[in-house]
């Protein structure tokens, strides 16, 4: 039997938070097309603040990657985020009639903590450190999106958030990204491995906490 990969072991160590996130009420309502508009508005405003730092973290991964091939792949993914995904946000915020002043909201605690974690991962100035958070953000979103079954919800605000995270390009990218972290991990000593594990574990907990926060107050 082959050994489970580094990323498989990291996910298994966070199974409770991971499973709670990918089966969360928010993703179940998204699949059913029944997220209350106030919750969807809040999610999108807050997630757009997440994406800002996420793009910066991708930049850090591009800067620290150990090959031009990896930089090209990461840059191709970055190009999708700043085009298709960015226009999804603006179209969805328009469709939900979110006024400009609400789009400039302050990050709520879970999002703020996630922004700080992404800054910490970038500040490791190591490819493995940046990947430890990127892998969580992309793989966990793929995992909930691929659980969707049956026809997509009619509203593009729901449907496109699912298809952006479950399509052949995204699936291939996540598999490649995991492979990069598995490969980068082989060059790390015990301290480096435990730093990656800590970033990964905290990212999974924050994915769950962000979903939970959407239902904290009646929105
Ligand atoms: C919080 C969060 N995690 C992951 C993704 C996927 O990129 C996202 N858009 N938001």
Can you walk through the features of this model?
It catalyses: thiamine + H2O = 5-(2-hydroxyethyl)-4-methylthiazole + 4-amino-5-hydroxymethyl-2-methylpyrimidine + H(+); 4-amino-5-aminomethyl-2-methylpyrimidine + H2O = 4-amino-5-hydroxymethyl-2-methylpyrimidine + NH4(+). With 219 residues, this protein is an all-alpha fold. The chain has one domain: Heme Oxygenase, Chain A. 77% of the residues lie in helices and 0% in strands. The chain has eleven helices and no strands. It has helices at 6-13, 15-22, 25-32, 37-64, 68-95, 100-103, 109-123, 127-145, 156-163, 168-185, 190-213. Helix 4 packs parallel to helix 7, helix 7 (109-123) packs antiparallel against helix 11 (190-213) and helix 8 (127-145) runs parallel beside helix 11. It is globular and about 50 Å long. The mean pLDDT is 96. 4-amino-5-hydroxymethyl-2-methylpyrimidine binds at residues 47, 50, 137-138, 141, 207, 210.
Topology (elements, then pairings):
Layout (H helix, E strand, L loop, with lengths): L5 H8 L1 H8 L2 H8 L4 H28 L3 H28 L4 H4 L5 H15 L3 H19 L10 H8 L4 H18 L4 H24 L6
Helix pairs in contact: 2-11, 4-5, 4-7, 4-8, 5-9, 7-8, 7-11, 8-10, 8-11
The site of 4-amino-5-hydroxymethyl-2-methylpyrimidine has 7 residues, from helix 4, helix 8 and helix 11.
Enzyme class: hydrolase
InterPro entries: Haem_Oase-like_multi-hlx (IPR016084), TenA_E (IPR026285), Thiaminase-2/PQQC (IPR004305), Thiamine_Salvage_TenA (IPR050967)
Pfam family, one: TENA_THI-4
């Amino acid at each position: 039997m082959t050994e489970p990969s580094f990323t498989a072991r990291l996910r298994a160590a966070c199974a409770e938070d991971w499973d709670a996130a990918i089966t969360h009420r928010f993703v179940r309502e998204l699949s059913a097309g029944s997220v209350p508009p106030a919750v969807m508005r809040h999610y999108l405003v807050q997630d757009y603040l997440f994406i800002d730092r996420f793009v910066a973290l991708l930049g850090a991964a591009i800067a620290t990657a150990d090959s031009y091939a990896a930089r090209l792949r990461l840059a191709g993914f970055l190009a999708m985020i700043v085009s298709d995904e960015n226009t999804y946000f603006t179209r969805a915020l328009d469709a939900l009639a979110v006024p400009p002043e609400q789009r400039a909201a302050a990050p709520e605690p879970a999002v703020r903590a996630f922004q700080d974690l992404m800054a910490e991962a970038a500040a490791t100035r190591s490819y493995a450190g940046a990947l430890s958070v990127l892998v969580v953000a992309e793989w966990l979103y793929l995992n909930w999106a691929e659980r969707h079954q049956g026809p997509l919800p009619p509203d593009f605000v729901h449907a496109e958030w699912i298809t952006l995270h479950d399509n052949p390009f995204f699936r291939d990218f996540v598999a490649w990204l995991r492979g990069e972290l598995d490969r980068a991990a082989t060059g790390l000593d015990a301290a480096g491995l435990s730093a990656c594990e800590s970033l990964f574990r905290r990212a999974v907990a924050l994915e769950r906490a962000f979903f939970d926060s959407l239902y904290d107050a009646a929105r």
